[in-house]
Write a structure and sequence with these properties.
By secondary structure, the chain is mainly α. It is built from ten helices and two strands; from the N terminus they run ααααααααααββ.
């Protein structure tokens, strides 16, 4: 049977006493809770939709605190200048001079953040069901802790700084590359730039693809994707470099939560999960 092991547990007779085994102790219960389970499509669709709705609601309910957000932006800009990494304005102006490039980046910013993330979730659901729940937990925990950052540290993006001389590429080129610009600006908290979830989510996608994909060029694309995303968020003046650092720190927290919850990193879990064939339960322990 290759690397798959099949076990068929015998059913206990009705009324027979249950023996005290490791499965009934505290340690056994923890192991059972950590055991990967097959995700259910209807539940995942509902969970993701509800979670994103809650995230958007909470994020946009955070008081905008414009004055404090602008002061924080000035402080971040000064710190980056002292560190010699304040190149956002140069990148922003250089990209803005190439119309087709900046327009493409605006649409990249508006769409791929969601399309790629959902695509990776679907791929995990179909091809790596045993790792799906733990890897999804990383994403959810990352996003949840980001909400704390939005509340505790309101931050204006570079394009809204007073005297920053950044170009709001969405406004200038009349594209819909940001929910925080143009006609949609009242639907989103404009001062929730720290941490950057464009980076948090894209690095999650990249690491997941690199760790689990079997095709070499796909793994390379996984690593390239967050790098390109970093260039885009800076070039469109939606984030500072340090916002990206905040996104990576949130992602580290997310992986820590999954590590504690499942006892190991998500990518080290079995690829397959227990399935039911007829009335017999089959465990496939394939890790490939």
């Amino acid at each position: 049977m290759g690397d798959a092991t099949v076990r068929t547990p015998e059913r206990l007779e009705d009324g027979a006493p249950h023996p005290v085994t490791e499965e009934t102790t505290g340690r056994g219960l923890v192991r059972r809770l950590r055991r990967p389970r097959r995700p259910r499509l209807w539940f995942e669709i509902l969970l993701i939709a509800l979670s994103y709705w809650t995230y958007s609601l909470v994020r946009n309910a955070v008081p905008e605190q414009r004055g404090q957000a602008l002061r924080n932006a000035d402080w971040i800009w000064r710190v980056e200048q002292q560190l010699g990494i304040a190149v956002e304005r140069s990148v922003n102006h250089a990209v803005d001079s190439v119309t087709w490039l900046v327009v493409g980046m605006n649409y990249y910013y508006a769409t791929l953040h969601f399309v790629v993330t959902l695509g990776v979730l679907v791929w995990l659901f179909r091809r790596h069901p045993g790792r799906y729940a733990a890897t999804r937990l990383v994403l959810f925990a990352t996003t949840a802790v980001a909400l704390v950052g939005y509340y505790l540290y309101p931050l204006a993006p570079p394009r809204l700084m007073n005297g920053g001389r950044f170009v709001d590429t969405v406004m200038v080129h009349q594209t819909w590359g940001s929910m925080a610009s143009g006609d949609l600006k009242n639907m989103s908290n404009q001062y929730a730039a720290m941490p950057s979830m464009h980076i948090g989510w894209s690095v999650w996608c990249g690491l997941t693809i690199f760790a689990l994909a079997s095709v070499p060029w796909v793994r390379v694309l996984g690593l390239v994707y967050p790098v390109v995303t970093l260039v885009v968020i800076v070039a469109t003046a939606n984030h500072f470099w340090l916002d990206a650092v905040g996104g990576v720190l949130c992602l580290g927290f997310g992986y820590g939560v999954a590590r504690v919850g499942y006892g190991r990193m998500p990518y080290g879990l079995p690829r397959s999960v227990p399935g039911v064939v007829g009335r017999r339960r089959v465990w496939a322990v394939t890790r490939g």
